Amino acid sequence: MIGSLQISPSSIEESMTHILHRQIHATLPVAAGGKGIELFDRDGRTYIDASGGAAVSCLGHGHPQVTAALHAQADKLAYAHTSFFTNEPAETLADKLVAGAPQGISHAYFVSGGSEAVEAALKMARQFFVETGKPERRNVIARRQSYHGNTLGALAAGGNEWRRAQFRPLLIETHHIEPCYAYRYQEAGESEEAYGLRAAQALEDKILELGPDTVMAFVAEPVVGATAGAVPAVPGYFGRIREICDRYGVLLILDEVMCGMGRTGTLHACEQDGVAPDLMTIAKGLGGGYQPIGAVLLSRRIFDAFAEGSGFFQHGHTYICHPMACAAALAVQEVIARDDLLANVRAMGAHLSQRLGERFGNHAHIGDIRGRGLFMGVELVEDRSTKAPFDPKLKLNAKIKREAMARGLLVYPAGGTIDGMRGDHVLLAPPFIIDAAAIDAVVERLGDAIDAAVP
Ligand code: PMP
After folding, report:
1. Residue 369: is its pLDDT beyond 60?
2. 3 in a structural domain
3. Ligand 1 and 225: CB distance under 6 A
4. Ligand 1 touching residue 39 (CB < 6 A)
5. Pairwise CA distance, residues 85 & 41, whole Å
6. Is 253 in the pocket of ligand 1 (CB under 6 A)?
7. Residue 294, C-beta contacts closer than 8 angstroms, at least 6 positions apart
8. pLDDT confidence bin for 27, thresholds 50/70/90
9. At 353, which CATH number?
10. Tens digits of per-residue pLDDT, 428-447?
11. Residue nearest to atom 5 of ligand 1 (CA)
12. Within this chain, do residues 197 and 275 fall inside the same structural domain, yes or no?
């Protein structure tokens, strides 16, 4: 059931709070509850959660099996420090994740979110080369138009200049190549395959420029989320990236924090690209928002290097392998498997793609509709023929978000940098339980919100 509601943007009242929000003058309603695909605020307004927050709430809200698992775990064991103990939910979850992981993955390392997972993966890559006698390998290559988190290592890897600019003096040195972004960079007359190979060539060029013996890892999102609004690579791109990494002994870190754990219709997005990483980061959909959790999935050769070398991974946080977080993730993943929700992601993803095409295919200000599964994005442009983005001063993202909320819809407005300019995208990542009628309502409300927001 979808609650119907009409409110004006101005009726979202400022909440008096001592919480420091990202925007200091945030005017945010207070979330009071959630059920299924809907969230409710304290004033009784209802919103369809069509982005699962930031692609987090894959099972929706208030799932009884997950809340029951959380209660049971809290009664049994809420916390035990990992320098003394392992724990049952963490062990079971690691077994389950390794069993379903891409080829070569042998272990899981649990942290509390995506940025922590990326930090840990970068340190694993570095320690791998120290343990295997190649300490000169230190350079990280990543892509412009990417987001890997907000802690300093993850921020250094991310390619979004706007996020990095003021913190640059604090960041480790990283090197950025062009993204695989067909809408913007595929040339007229160039096939997808040819474009993919050309885009991947940028990695080899960068490795050769830096000196192959100095390069540690290449980090990339298989489907770019927060900075680009669900941009998948073209077929063949990641296959070539894998070959290049292997040729030069560079570790491939795939960041599936946002696009992973079923969001694109397969458990891992990289399955659709036919590649397996050396290290993979996952988070958001792993715990579905019921607890903060992230993980690094690492390959056998990295584990072996640690096991045969110093015997430990030199890292750690107080809350690694948190029993409550692991129990929540286990319950979320059990429900997804039991109810075959990935089949629904594929079916509803196709429906969403079709409806977006119908509503926005000829829209004067939608340049591109893209994505995979229930991870779809639309890119706004001022002019479809030149693909020029809107002036960032218009703050179109923020306007669309407000107009959507006023219509009882939550979408994730992702602002990326396009050729140095800020661009506007809307990211849709609804819960895996969504049905066709709700998708129709999402597209209708989004269409109205965009039309009300664009100048
Ligand atoms: N990597 C990717 C691909 C992400 O999308 C995000 C979050 N948007 C992160 C890392 C960071 O995750 P977190 O916000 O949980 O630290």
Report:
1. yes
2. no
3. yes
4. no
5. 40
6. no
7. 110, 111, 112, 113, 114, 115, 116, 117, 257, 281, 282, 283, 286
8. confident
9. 3.90.1150.10
10. 999 999 999 999 999 999 99
11. 258
12. yes
Whether ligand 1 lies within 6 angstroms of the CB of 260 is answered as no
Instruction: Name residue 49's beta-bridge partners.
Output: 410
Other Cβ atoms closer than 10 A to 191: 12
**Which one of 287, 317, 338 terminates a domain?**
338
**Atom in ligand 1 nearest the alpha carbon of residue 151:** 16
Residue 26 has pLDDT above 70, yes or no: no
Range of the domain at 385: 9-63+340-453
Task: Assess whether the C-beta atom of 324 lies below 6 angstroms from ligand 1.
Answer: no
State which ligand 1 atom lies nearest to the alpha carbon of 149: 11
153 lines ligand 1 (CB under 6 A): no
Q: Are residues 198 and 234 located together in one domain of the fold? A: yes
Q: Same structural domain for residues 50 and 71?
A: no
Q: Tell me if 2 is assigned to some domain.
A: no
Q: Which helix (H) or strand (E) holds 122?
A: helix 114-131
Q: Rounded to an integer, what distance in angstroms lies between the CA atom of residue 232 and that of residue 256?
A: 12
**4 assigned to some structural domain:** no
* Residue that terminates a domain, selected from 338, 366, 393: 338
Q: What is the pLDDT of residues 90-107, one digit of tens each?
A: 999 999 999 999 999 999
Residue 148 CA to ligand 1 center (angstroms) comes to 5
Q: How far apart are CA 400 and CA 246, in angstroms?
A: 43
Judgement on whether residues 191 and 332 belong to the same structural domain of the protein: yes
Residue 8 has pLDDT above 80, yes or no: no
Q: How many domains does the chain have?
A: 2
Would you say the CB of residue 414 lies under 6 angstroms from ligand 1? no
Phi and psi, residue 35, nearest 5°: -150, 125
List the structure tokens of 345.
């992601």
Q: Could you tell me if 420 and 383 lie in one domain?
A: yes
Cβ-based burial of 398 (10 A; exposed 0-12, middle 13-18, buried ≥19) = middle
Residue 439 CB–ligand 1 contact under 6 Å: no
- 132-158 per-position pLDDT tens digit: 999 999 999 999 989 999 999 999 999
Per-residue pLDDT band at 14 (split at 50, 70, 90): very low
Residues 123 and 193 in one domain: yes
* Residue 325 CA, ligand 1 centroid: distance in Å: 17
More confident: 81 or 13? 81
Q: What is the mean pLDDT of the chain?
A: 94
User: Quick check: ipTM above 0.90?
Assistant: yes
